[in-house]
């Protein structure tokens, strides 16, 4: 037997606040410490005195001392028991140190393993084990839950434990019945200010996944699009809620129930029309007089989702970029805008049927507003719109505008 195998330890669990002490001996101090703490935290320790004291004051300290062999460890443990047994703060139950420290030799362990290998359990044994497990799954009382909560408070979880908890928690949402239970349990609950602050701190800096962004866009669909109520079209949910004197959630629920018609339902039931002009921004009064909605797509003051980069505009004016190079850069920016700022593009569908795309460039010269007009036209046609590109809006009123008037 090696020197490492001969070593043994005498250990003490001591509570500095209450003075309670539990003594023992072992050949593996770390293992024995983990076993004791695991049983205490799970409220299943075989020493009821030790368990009660831990439930009241769990801040026990573990101290161990190495001795040459197990006989020395048992002798030292027995001497401590003999001296302090019967004291209110001494937690050992047995008077005999050897009774609680039956150490088996490797040969004995091997004989037991061979004896149990291949052994079949009887039906009676299996039923007893099953009943025992069923008793373990019984519901805990509020008092037991509180004791466990106090035992685990302040104990950091390992990465492996966190991963297991995450997997088991996600599995709950795969069951529709569990999702319904969770939904009913949270219904009507209001988060405290402290809870909201914690959630905000956890979510800060976290990047949303593509799936989450898609779900958020679907959830915002009703809030950002128009709604048809009793023949009147409201541009947004907020506008409809204010007109009817109800909350926005009420409008959303009525849309889902089929009482009102949301923008997506309108698009599927009818073909909307859209007439698109281009205009120099300095002529914005003309668009207002004609009742045409103006979309500012300039680099400095316009909607960023539709505007070019200011550096590209200046590079084109200085001759650094050609029209072809400028066009490629703008189209690439719009493709990115369609993905990252889709809400702005969706909002165009809720605008009036006549719109004008505005920029500072004069009429008749190369300008990105003409590129944007073609892109927007294709986008609206894909959404089942009937689109008409009416050209540049100048000082005189176009003939077809007079005819419509």
Notes on the structure:
- With 405 residues, this protein is α/β, with parallel strands linked by helices.
- It folds into 3 domains: 3-113, 3-Layer(aba) Sandwich (GIY-YIG endonuclease), CATH 3.40.1440; 221-269, no CATH class; 273-404, no CATH class.
- Helices cover 52% and strands 13% of the residues.
- The protein has 21 helices and 10 strands.
- It has helices at residues 3-6, 29-41, 48-56, 70-84, 106-116, 123-136, 142-152, 159-172, 176-186, 193-203, 210-219, 221-224, 237-244, 248-257, 263-269, 284-289, 310-317, 323-340, 342-348, 368-382, 399-404; strands at residues 8-14, 21-26, 61-67, 227-229, 232-234, 261-262, 273-280, 293-296, 354-359, 386-392.
- The strands form 3 sheets. The chain has a 4-stranded parallel β-sheet. A 3-stranded antiparallel β-sheet has the order 2-1-3.
- A hairpin with a 2-residue loop joins strand 4 (227-229) and strand 5 (232-234).
- Helix 13 (237-244) crosses helix 14 (248-257) and helix 18 (323-340) runs parallel beside helix 20 (368-382).
- The model is unreliable at 401-405 (pLDDT under 50).
């Amino acid at each position: 037997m090696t020197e490492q195998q001969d070593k043994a330890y005498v250990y003490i669990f001591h509570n500095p606040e209450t003075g309670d002490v539990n003594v023992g001996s072992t050949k593996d101090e770390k293992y024995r410490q983990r076993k004791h703490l695991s049983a205490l935290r799970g409220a299943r320790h075989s020493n009821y005195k030790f368990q009660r004291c831990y439930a009241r004051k769990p801040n026990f300290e573990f101290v161990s001392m190495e001795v040459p062999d197990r006989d020395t460890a048992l002798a030292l443990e027995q001497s401590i028991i003999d001296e302090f047994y019967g004291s209110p703060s001494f937690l050992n139950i047995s008077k005999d140190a050897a009774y609680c420290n039956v150490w088996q030799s490797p040969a004995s362990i091997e004989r037991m393993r061979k004896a149990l290998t291949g052994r079949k359990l009887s039906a009676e044994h299996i039923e007893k084990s099953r009943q025992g497990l069923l008793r373990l799954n019984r519901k805990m009382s509020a008092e037991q839950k509180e004791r466990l909560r106090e035992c685990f408070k302040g104990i950091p979880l390992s990465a492996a434990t966190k991963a297991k908890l995450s997997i088991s928690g996600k599995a709950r949402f795969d069951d529709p019945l569990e999702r319904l239970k969770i939904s009913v349990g949270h219904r009507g609950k209001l988060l405290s200010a402290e809870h909201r602050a914690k959630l905000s701190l956890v979510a800060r800096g976290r990047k949303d996944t593509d799936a989450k962004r898609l779900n958020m866009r679907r959830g915002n669909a009703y809030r950002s699009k128009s709604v048809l109520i009793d023949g009147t079209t409201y541009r947004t949910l907020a506008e409809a809620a204010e007109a009817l004197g109800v909350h926005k959630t009420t409008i959303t629920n009525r849309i889902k129930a089929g009482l009102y018609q949301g923008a997506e339902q309108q698009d599927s039931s009818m073909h909307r029309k859209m007439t698109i002009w281009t205009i120099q921004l300095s002529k914005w009064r003309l668009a207002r007089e004609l009742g045409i909605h103006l979309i500012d797509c300039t680099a400095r003051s316009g909607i960023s989702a539709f505007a070019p980069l200011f550096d590209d505009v200046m590079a084109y004016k200085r001759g650094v970029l050609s029209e072809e190079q400028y066009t490629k850069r703008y189209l690439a920016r719009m493709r990115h805008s369609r993905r990252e700022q889709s809400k702005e593009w969706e909002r165009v569908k809720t605008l009036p049927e006549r719109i004008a795309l505005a920029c500072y460039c004069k009429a008749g010269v190369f300008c990105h507003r003409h590129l944007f007009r073609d892109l927007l036209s294709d986008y609206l046609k894909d959404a089942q719109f009937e689109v008409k590109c009416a050209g540049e809006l100048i000082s005189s009123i176009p003939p077809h505008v007079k005819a419509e008037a």
